[in-house]
Records
---
Amino acid sequence: MRESKLWFWHILSSVIILVLLGIHMGIMHLGEILSAIGIGSGDAVASEAVFHRSQQLMFMVTYILLLGAALFHGFYGLRSMLFELSLSKGLEKSIGALCAVAGIGLFLYGSYAAVYVFQMKGVLP
Amino acid sequence: MSKSSKQDSDIIMTARFEVLRYNPERDKAPHLREYSVPVTKGMTVLDGLHWIKEHKDHTLSWRSSCRMGVCGSCGMFINGMPRLACNNQIVHLHSDHIIIKPLPNFDIIRDLVPDLESLFNKHRSVKPYLIRKDSEEQNLPTGEFFQSTEELVNYIQFAYCIKCGLCMAACPTVATSENYTGPQALTQGWRYTSDSRDEGAPERAEELYSSHGVYRCHFAGACSQVCPKGVDPALAIQMAKRDAFLKAFGSRKQRQATSVAPPIENWVPKAEIPKAPEPTVTKK
């Protein structure tokens, strides 16, 4: 049933990505439209705006959540594609382990960056 | 009117059959050979092949048996689609140019004969039979296992599979991934798992939900499109996924197999129905 759970998380992560990436795209690329309807404020990609968002708890949490979902979804997808190459059992296990290590490593590194910037509240403009 | 002139008058068109020929003992590679075939009303692709064998080339090889879409032997790649040769009339192909090749995704034994060993190995791997804890009852039955109409409807369409291999030939994942269990075997795994008389789901799970099982299906749906018996393997695979999901997260428990149905009281056999013969084989 391990594969069943992995597949479930794969589907769930796609839903999370759909929502969070939608919000991200809205904020980053639809600034003018959002401003016009009174939601957005100013230039979203200006460094001040980026730091401002990064230092809010809600954004830090969503960054980490999006990072986790995207990494899991991507690495599970990569693993699935590689498994279709009719590899040996041993090689499949190695690929699975490599994907897990790379995914966890990148997640920790990305989360560290998000938390680090969040903690710089008051230091940065 | 002589027999031959009557046959001539029945001819409605002449079809150009391009048939893949390959004799591994003689040919370096498969190649197409062309034959002109007089087509009569109702003539199937299989009839056309028989005509070629009878009149043009007796060395042409293929596999067929029942001629009525029941045995599943004559699966071929006809005009770009896996089909049963006996089940398709030439006129229904809407072309006078018929290209016939052996089923893709299988090795060729000779001409139009595919090597179906991988199909049957995968089929065997999902344990396509009833698995129960009461093996004694299975070996020496005292009655029939109960099954309601609703329980029968759950799996009946999947039981129509004739193991022709068309779904495996149409599946794009089977084409690229040799290890993929494939729509035929996965459907049969689900057919028995969803049978109320069966309790072998845990034993089948190893294959059904492996890293080459249901989760590798890309849901192209080609398997369901080509099935000559109306089986929907894509649906079976999705149902198997849902079942695994619900069981993995505890929302669905492993079902207990139905027991032997109690004898019907006050039942009087109809006189016109002959009595069933006594078992000829008994367990020692």
---
Amino acid sequence: VTQGSAAGIRHHRAPARAGSAWLRRLLPCALLLGGCSVNISVAPTPLPDALVEPYPLRAAVRYTDSINAFSHEETLPSGEDWTINLGKSSRSMLASVANDLFTDVVELEKGEPVPPSIDLLMEADVEAFEFALPSQSVNEDYTVWIRYRIRVYDADGNEQANWPISAYGKASDDAIMSGRKTAMQQAAELAIRDAAVLLLTRFGKDAQLADNQLKDTETIEPPAIEAPAELPPGTNPPGNTSGPGEASDEERLVYE
Amino acid sequence: MRRGAPIRVLTAIVAVATLAACSTSRIDTVKTSKTGIATDESVVIMARSYHLGNDTETDFTKCIGAELGDGDGAFNVVSEKAFVDAMFPWFEPRTAPGDVAALPKLMSRPAIADRMKSTGVRYVVWLDGNSERTAGGGSVSCAAGAGGAGCFGFAWWQTDSNYDAVVWDLESLSEAGSIEARVSGTSYLPAIVIPVPMIARTQATACKDLAGQIRQFISAAPTTSAS
């Protein structure tokens, strides 16, 4: 083991950047005095090909209304109206995940009959959506939580598993003017990607597939997730799902 | 006032600013195994997961990558996004190995090991830490009227930039060591009509110092510390 240590004093030229953080916060407020609305549309973002071995299953994926189009509207105590439209981004994520998870995938719209000879049917809903602004936390981050409800049915149409996944995304604003919208969009995209990661790495266990169908990668335990210290009051921490079944009180996303 | 006097005053203010905004820098290095990098090997700079409460600035991660990929002895630096996409979903904020002990199990999967090999990445450098204002005081008031505008007052604040870099060697699947950068600086904002900010750029200093030390660390040069 080698070690090194040193200390010193440095002098630095000082570019005129003072107050840029103040500007970031004050400019929107100054422009938005008297109330305003913020509209954000989250575009579907292609996911990379996943390094997972597909289950040798023929699966049907049924897209529900909330997966096809979900919009969250909220009026903050400051009077600002926020609308965050997930559009088809959840659908795009689910389609990508299904194609990585199964060797054969049939996509179904709502009400469309389930074809024979499938091994399972998967559908999902956006069950809860929350966000937090830097003014609600102790740092400069925009944060999004999305809870999806996943349901899996067997070939006979019986519910095999039903579980929630709580996905989480966080982003900071680097620009002065367009920072807020871009950061919130990015946080939402990261939350949707996080949902994909949860499905890809835990599907076999959560969907209660037979032991002989589980893959090697599902024995890789992700690191323990702790609640970031900056979660707004009343908001539950992001975390792994507890598996099939109803969400526990700890898992429910509560925002005050 | 004579012509040219304002320029001299401004020059004096800038000179004072240059002298006044200072920072203290400290780098500590612990090396636990031999390192070295071939020309066809790469380095990736990753921020520790925000799922674990880390809030290393994206700009800082990019700065370290840019410093390592530039100048004499530049490394091949794979961007964090390209690496995370290539390894999807195993180096995501939720799934990235939290400890080097998890690496062998992850890399025992042929598909994951093959993909890792194809990225050419030999070292993963995990960054942790942030820059934050730790103290401050004073005030500056500004006013505008028909006759003009101006500011008066004095404000100061201290910023601490504390970052840790942990280096994983993917060839030996072990931790090669760690480097800590601690930079503290005080900024001043005196205002007599015109505010003159004197900013201690602690984050930029931490980036430059840490990147320089990572370069020495990985290229197996003697581990003397920078300041």
---
Amino acid sequence: MNKKIKIIILIFVLVVISRFITISIINNIRSDISTNLISDYQKHEEALGEQVAHIVEAQVENLREKLLIIADNDFIKNSDPTLCKDALQGIYEVLDTKIGNLGRVGLDKKFYCSINSALVGVDATTLGTYIDDIFNDPEHKPVTSRIISPPGAGFAIAVHVPVFNDAQEFVGTIGGAIYLAELNETYLRNVSIGDTGYVILLDDDGTLLSHPQKELIGRNFFNDSDIRKTISTIDEVTSKVQEASDKGIPTTLQYDFMGSMKQATFVPIHISEERRWVVGVTLSLDEIQDDLVAIGIEDNLNKVTVVTGFFAALVPFLILIYLILSVFNVLGRVNRSLNKISTGDFSERIKLKGPKRDELVTLSNSFDKMAAELQSFNEDMQAKVQHKTEELSEKVAELEKTKLATLNILEDLEFEKDNLKEEKDKIDTIIKSIGDAVFVVDKDLKIILYNNIAAQLSGFSAEEAVGKYYKDVLKFISEENDKETDSFVMDALNKGTIAAMANHTVIVTKKGDRIPVSDSAAPIKNKDGQVIGCVVVFRDVSKEREVDRAKTEFVSLASHQLRTPLSAISWYAEMLMDGDAGELNKQQLEFLSEIYQGNKRMVALVNALLNVSRIDLGTFAVEPIPTKIVEIAESVIKELQPQIETKKQKLKTDFDDLPEMNLDVNLTRIIFQNLISNAVKYTPDEGTVTVKVKKKDEQVVITVSDTGYGIPKEQQERIFQKLFRADNVREKEADGTGLGLYIVKAILDNSGGDINFVSEENKGTTFTATLPITGMAKKDGTKGLS
Amino acid sequence: MAKVLVVEDSLGLQKAIISKLTQEGFEVIPSVASQEAMQKLEENPDTDFIWLDHYLLGEETGLDFITHVKGNEKFKHIPVFLVSNTATAEKIKTYMHLGIDKYYMKSNISLKEIIEDVKNLLEGNPK
């Protein structure tokens, strides 16, 4: 064989071999680049998935924490729906991020208060099994629902946490919702990955919680027929989803979606100890391929293949060897660079120098261009990741702030509540400690508070009384005519003033017994002064009434018994003085007269004591009849004329011509009798006593002035006290009981009048008594004064 | 000579009343109890005037006695003065309703004053 031909054959063989080697190496490179790129995308899908998972986890966790704080609020623990509603509303209003459907579920598993009024009364178990789960769990751990559709709201995920009362007994739950629409719009829908990537969110049984196509939310990813139609290998996909959910690790796969290959990464979200949701990040493989084309790698690799063939046919062996060595050198560098890039060093470049037409240089340049694209893609991705991370940090910070704000508000609430509780405890204790029966009615006359004594006295328990119209429980009637005597309650409510029970009121007990009671009703006003209810206090006065009767009887009997011997003394002295038993000498007559006068004073004292006892017992009556006041004044003056003449005093009168007014004749007489006789008694001989009865505005003014001894300044404030007599007159006049002015003041106080005086020692005194022009107010009582 | 029935359980006071009335020219029929007084009234249907106290000997009081007198056609025209120390407003009201002519509280009035009023009344000249 020709040596040349052998060489040519050898070269040809070598060229063929080298071409195969070259092609194989280039394919290898292409495969490496593609694999690296895909795994790169996968890493980013995973990173993104994890961020979404964090956001969702943070949302659920934050809701749960907020709920746990709210669950500890005393008003929420309290079973009163009104308080609960107010508390919820208050908390809701201060939340930065609102909790949807915030509501409290009672032990009957029904919502009894909620900021969503459509929820109130709804059986929570109809929304999902999570309520049963938390109720049945012996530890009552917080639960997160599957997708639910509460009334008056869209799809949502509910979180419920247990509520424990102060005795640490489970008393129901408090829950709130995350609306999927909101989650979707705010966090997931706008996450973009390349041009075709998107994010989905699935719960642990495959229900779609979020999807860029809103209509798919709520459908089941595993067995929805529409979804199954679009993915040929759906079972493989669902098994990857379940693997991520079950094992709690990210999974990746590629699958055919209506003829286009997709790559999806599923990342678990830890919703609770048992449950994991899954975030799916999906990207089209075509896009990854397009990226390869876009950066020119494919084109250049093809060119390399063609060029190497062409040169192989023409260039000598050495060139071939050189070529092969050069190619190896470049490819080796490409491979090293690729390895560096695949470990994340995107700054790696080959930077091969030489003429522009050198294909290896072109390859090297193309590679560098690709690396640059990859680097910028990576940087772009990192920027996105960083942006998302910042957003997440902001969210977390905001959530922290909300939590703090909630805590602050709750602290304030707690403080207010402590204050309220303390006040309430105080009031409760006071009411319990009161030995009298107490009940409180609201403005609709319904009993809202009722103490033990009220229960004991009436026979109706608190359970039977509270919430009822009070007249249905507590019947107050007059013991005299059986008529209702509860106008005092209406008086307190309508007039806003304290109203006393009428005399002789009895309460009819549950058994039908009648117990005499006494006391009053007082209005309860809000801070604007409006009457919002009334508190009624009453007590059993059976014993008091008995004692009262006994006292009155005693006083009556005693006075009768005293008066009989006084009458005997008076009448026998009178007969002796009249000479019925024979003429008396002057001295006998004088002594007898002393006995007679002393006896008269004794009678006056007995009368005054009897009056005082009636005043003190509150049993004296004021019974006005139309009377001319001036006539009473004149009659009293006439009676006192002998004393005035004896003391050679001057009496001046000034009476207006007044029409008849309603006066109790006896009492009016007592007023004039005491004031005028005092003036006469405490004015020295030849002094002046002036009596005036004048009309002034809507009053009748009685003025009795004298030029007498006066009342010492330091004793003036005691002048109306019972049995008090000023020192200066005690020396001058032994006669006097110290009861007259006390009785006068009591009469005026009890009949709508008033009395005061001015006095200067040794100059005189002026008493001024006033009565309404209409006369005296009527007062019921058993006895008059005499 | 006018005939006066004095119904008064306190013998000390009764003695003074009788003494004064006799001195003033009255014929006095004394009594200490309601039933006894009714009996004496039956014996003396020409009685001109009754002087009555509230508390009397026995079960019945002046209220029972005045009820008997005013319920009896023969005696209901006879004027009655209540002279008593039992001065509750209620009792006086009741006596007034039952038809007594006047009320006096013993301790506050002299015998002379009462007898003046009795004389005036019987002479058809009441005060």
